[in-house]
Amino acid sequence: MTTIILKPHKEESLKRFHPWVFSGAIARIVLDAAHKAAAPEEGELVCVESANGETLGVGHWQVGSIAVRILEFGVAELPADFWEQRVRAAYQVRASLGLVRKDNDTFRLVHGEGDWLPGLIVDVYADTAVVQAHSVGMHVFRAAIAEAIVAVVPQVKNVYYKSDDTLPFKAAIEGEKTGWLVRGSEYSENSEDSEFWSTENGLEFRIDWLKGQKTGFFVDQRENRALVERYAAGKEVLNMFCYTGGFSLYALRGGAKRVDSVDVSQKAIDLVNANVAHNFPKAKNHTAVTADAFEYLTAQKNAGRTFDLIILDPPAFAKHRDAVKNALRGYQRINAKAIEMIRPGGILFTFSCSQAVDKEAFRLAVFSAAASVGRKVRILHQLHQPQDHPINIYHPEGEYLKGLVLYIE
Q1: H, E, C per residue of 328-371
Q2: CATH, residue 319
Q3: Structural domain tally of the chain?
Q4: Are residues 239 and 361 both part of a single domain?
Q5: Is the Cα dihedral 389, 392, 397, 402 positive or negative?
Q6: Residues 238, 289: Cα–Cα separation, whole Å
Q7: pLDDT at 315 over 90
Q8: What are the backbone dihedrals phi and psi of residue 101, each rounded to the nearest 5 degrees, phi first?
């Protein structure tokens, strides 16, 4: 195996179990005899050693600022059943948390560094696992990962690979970035001709893992959707950036008087309507609208509309550090518009999924929004990602979802 030798004193973060080796920490690369090129191939397993020869671990090599993502610390090679070991450990966590139930067959099985598998995301929907690779190494080992998932998770018969939007765009990647890795059930390759349904807390959702966002559904809002259900009774609810309508369905089940769902994507709105019709076939208190969020809120304000409960769950406004300033302005602007439209005694659920925006900066943006419209606001809950999106204590960068529940006087 190729060996990566670090510069003196650059091993300290690995000894604290942080799984990333940055390119600037590398002193030299010792290639094994099988190599004909001058550098390791992307996705290759490499052994990392300190300057004094101490074995620090094994990980995936990748070109870029993060050169190695460590899979196992303190070893020079991985055990033969490594993938099954890690997937089994991840599954046991979900089972022990009570997430694997008859009325809940939707959960995140693997959450990257949080499950000691940096660069890998796996979501389970009924009998299908959807795999996303965020590193070339996970792409290279996708077949072994799929085999381990099917061996470990009893409900999974199919594994679909969806990494066209997540792999590094500059990487020299061989093989398909999307497609079936394991197929135990017959599903059409065209999502429009098929209906894939999975269950979350007793509600059934149509999942489009072939063409939908991320892996097809935002599993990370499960607990926060359940909290909306607790507050929804008798309220007029507005669900902005609704995607497939997760918050809307929970609000309807919670007894909302009326629910409006808004998204800029017509395809998302079609899925919202399908989900509402499937779960609440007699419901007449739901309306879905295709519209830009800022334009919609402005139009509703001008029309004098107000709501008892508003949910703001936008896509990431900042996908990298350079965009943080603009993102914070966006959060302040959208929250100010929403706070203006909430009736006295109403509730605002507001979120940021931008990893580059920390929770204090997000809270300050919402505070500034409230101050700008002159409303009295109390924080009722501070929300975050759920148990199946664990944060590795040695990798705090894994905390990305921030949310506030506000009471507006």
Answers
A1: HHHHHHHHHHHHHCEEEEEEEEEEECCCCCCHHHHHHHHHHHHH
A2: 3.40.50.150
A3: 3
A4: yes
A5: positive
A6: 11
A7: no
A8: -140, 165
Nearest CA-CA partner of 348 in 289, 307, 386, 385: 307
DSSP label of 20 = E
Q: State which amino acid sits at residue 238.
A: L
Query: At residue 38, what are phi and psi to the nearest 5 degrees?
Result: -85, 0
Q: Residue 325's Cα: distance from chain center in Å?
A: 22
Strand 258-263 and strand 286-290: the pairing is: parallel
Please state whether 115 falls in left (phi above 0), alpha (psi between -120 and 50) or beta.
Answer: alpha
- In-domain check, residue 200: no
The residue segments making up the domain with residue 355 are 218-408
What is the per-residue pLDDT across 190-206, written as a single tens digit (0 to 9) for each?
655 567 899 999 999 99
39 has a pLDDT exceeding 90 = no
- State the average pLDDT over residues 362-374: 95
Question: Which one of 73, 95, 119 terminates a domain?
Answer: 73
- SS3 state of residue 22: strand
Pairwise pLDDT comparison (358 vs 221), residue with the higher score: 221
Does 93 share its domain with 152? yes
Cα–Cα dist 18/44, whole Å: 20
Name the pLDDT band for 326 (thresholds 50, 70, 90).
Answer: confident
Contact between 293 and 314 (Cβ < 8 Å): yes
Rounded alpha-carbon distances, angstroms, from residue 53 to 8, 22, 68, 77, 121: 10, 18, 17, 15, 33
In total, the chain counts a number of residues equal to 409
**Cα gap 281→344, rounded to integer Å:** 32
pLDDT at 188 over 70: no
Tell the residue number behind the tokens 């990257």, with chain if given. Answer: 112
Catalytic residue list: 353
Same domain, 349 and 258: yes
Give the span between the Cα atoms of 241 and 315, in whole angstroms: 8
Dist CA 46 CA 32 (whole Å): 10
* Cross-strand pairs, 239: 261, 311
Q: Is the pLDDT of residue 149 over 60?
A: yes
Q: ∠212-218-221 over CA atoms, to 5°? A: 165
Q: Which residues contact 258 (CB under 8 A, 6 or more apart)?
A: 236, 237, 285, 286, 287
What is the arithmetic mean of pLDDT over 36-54? 91
Residues 46 and 143 in one domain: no
Q: What single string gives the DSSP state of each residue in 260-295?
A: EEEES-HHHHHHHHHHHHHH-TT--SEEEEE--HHH
